[in-house]
């Protein structure tokens, strides 16, 4: 059975500045949910409230319908924006220590730490002080810290920033595994292509308010008008004067356009064929970047 983490009408101000305004969204168990928004949109503040590091002015966060208590939050894994491992302690020792803080026995903490560091490619670095590691490896250690107690919920602030592509893939696998065990996994990121590839669900925040939330396919259907892409052999500039067509992007022989409501796409295809070979023609699904632009503007 999976559990849902629910953020319900959460508001928070700093002084007279409303930073979160009635923020509501759900993070489904067993899923990876990407949390995206521009700088200062309110992602970190929302995550801090979920973790109880910061209080909401109103609204609440629940897990499986129950308000969060200290005991429930003990079972969360958190990777905060400010990171915060001990630079002078060895990687191994601090992950074990954090496991113990979360209630693991000393042998369980040792075992989990060994496995996790190995999995994250840090096995050979386990005995080094954190400050001696590269930034990317420190980041991996942060993930190990968030995961050591097999958390029932994972909340990660920018876990992919600064990672090389191979480290990203390792991290993705680790997060997918955690989600596969039924845990809700929420992470923020500015890397929209990555979020698009990785996530089951998305939450888009702008200026302290949720602009869109839900599964990728639904968001795509709701938030971006259908568009077509065509590739021909010669310049496709004639599309500008084609009735029913609005040209969005033209790069020589490649054109992206929308059609007036009810306009038959086959008429455009025929018009293109009259001018020469057509290499590809069809509707394209909008990318997350396009949806993002549309909903936050
Ligand atoms: N403790 C605080 N006191 C005053 N203002 C704050 C505080 N914490 C956050 N803010 C403000 O709240 C707004 C939202 O910040 P937050 O860090 O949640 O954004 P974010 O979406 O995580 O941004 P980024 O992508 O840059 O990390 C910002 O304008 C920030 O300056």
Automatic annotation (TrEMBL):
The record, for InterPro entries, names:
AAA+_ATPase (IPR003593), ABC_transporter-like_ATP-bd (IPR003439), ABC_transporter-like_CS (IPR017871), ABC_transporter_ATP-binding (IPR050763), DrrA1/2-like_C (IPR025302), P-loop_NTPase (IPR027417)
The ABC transporter domain is annotated at 5-232
The source's superkingdom equals: Bacteria
UniProt keywords (A-Z) are:
Antibiotic resistance, ATP-binding, Nucleotide-binding, Transport
Q: Which Pfam families match?
A: ABC_tran (PF00005), DrrA1-3_C (PF13732)
Q: Which residues cross the membrane?
A: none
Q: Which GO terms describe its molecular function?
A: ATP binding
The topology of this chain with respect to the membrane is: Peripheral membrane protein
Keyword Magnesium belongs to the record: no
According to the UniProt entry, the coiled-coil residues are none
Q: What family is reported?
A: Belongs to the ABC transporter superfamily.
- What this protein is called in its record is ATP-binding cassette domain-containing protein
Organism expressing this protein natively: Paractinoplanes ovalisporus
């Amino acid at each position: 059975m999976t559990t849902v983490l629910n953020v319900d009408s959460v508001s928070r101000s700093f002084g007279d500045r409303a930073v979160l305004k009635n923020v509501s969204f759900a993070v489904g168990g067993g899923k990876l949910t990407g949390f995206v928004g521009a700088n200062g949109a309110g992602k970190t503040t929302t995550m801090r409230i979920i973790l109880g590091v910061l209080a909401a002015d109103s609204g609440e966060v629940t897990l499986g319908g129950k308000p969060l208590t200290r005991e429930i939050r003990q079972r969360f894994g958190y990777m905060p924006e400010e990171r915060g491992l001990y630079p002078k302690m060895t990687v191994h020792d601090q992950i074990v220590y954090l496991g113990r803080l979360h209630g693991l026995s000393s042998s369980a903490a040792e075992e989990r730490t060994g496995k996790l560091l190995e999995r994250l490619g840090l096995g050979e670095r386990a005995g080094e002080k954190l400050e001696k590691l590269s930034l990317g490896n420190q980041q991996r250690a942060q993930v190990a810290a968030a995961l050591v107690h097999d958390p029932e919920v994972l909340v990660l602030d920018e876990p992919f920033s600064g990672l090389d592509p191979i480290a990203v893939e390792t991290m993705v696998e680790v997060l997918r595994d955690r989600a596969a065990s039924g845990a809700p996994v929420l992470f923020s990121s500015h890397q929209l292509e990555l979020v698009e590839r990785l996530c089951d669900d998305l939450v888009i925040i702008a200026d302290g308010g949720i602009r869109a939330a839900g599964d990728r396919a639904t968001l795509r259907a709701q938030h971006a008008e259908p568009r077509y892409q065509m590739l021909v052999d010669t310049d496709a500039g004639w599309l500008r004067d084609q009735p029913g067509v609005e040209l969005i992007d033209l790069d020589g022989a490649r054109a992206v356009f929308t059609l007036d409501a009810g306009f038959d796409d086959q008429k455009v295809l025929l018009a293109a064929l009259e001018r020469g070979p057509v290499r590809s023609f069809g509707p394209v699904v909008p990318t997350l970047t396009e949806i993002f632009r549309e909903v936050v503007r």
